[in-house]
Please model this.
Amino acid sequence: MNTLFFRLRAYLRHWVTCLDRHSLQAPFIYDLYQSTIVSSKSPPLRHEIESLRNHLLKNTNSFQVTDYGTGRNSKKNAQLTTVSHITRNSSCSPKEGKFLWNLCEYFQARHVLELGTSMGIGSSYMASSSFLPKIYTFEGCPRTAEAAKENFKKLNLSNLQVFEGNIDQTLPSFLSQSPKLDLVYLDANHTYEATLRYFLWLLPHLHKHSVVVFDDIHWSQGMEKAWKKILRDSPHAISIDLFDLGVLFFDPAKKKQHYVLRF
Model:
């Protein structure tokens, strides 16, 4: 199926079924929606981060990118691209960045893991939380990882640790000695197999108050299939579909429920 047609059909299906805050009755979900999705609170570095984004969007310098996104046998594909192109196509939106920051604030996240650093926009939003979480962020392309590190320095953020190289190799090594994770943001290899693989690796390192955010759950048939399988098979309690993002909560004290919400 054509990707654009698939996404349009998925969006129409989401739009027809999604709820807003006025339709929510469960106290936890209503409070979460108010505090993280429609909150008027603004991240302290929002202006600086968005100024940096605008600067990157105007940067037409090119460099070689190592892409593991195909997910086939860990082989890498090299291609020439620009800073502007990467920023436009691989960075979270301002709205998503604010949402990630709000999640860190709401759940007082201390240990945060991100798969897919890109230029470091999402990482920077989360790192600016008042709880100063330790951000472990993974990027396959060494050149992109270096660019992200430079951006973190420009924002005076020091609570980030960047792991360079194929995530299929760097993530298992990290998890073998990692603490329990409070928040996980998956925005790396957008394939069915990789999404499931990473999630299964991360699952033993979550606790009952952990939050897992998946990017682009309706980006392709493979990503939507992975999201549906995770909803069906994982031990989560509450799941939320925001169309561009999918969110899982694991507290067994909460009744298992799925919500499709307006974002």
User: Anything to note?
Assistant: The two ends are 26 Å apart (CA to CA). Confidence is low (pLDDT under 50) at residues 70-75. The first helix runs from residue 3 to 17. The CA atoms of residues 163 and 170 lie 7 Å apart.
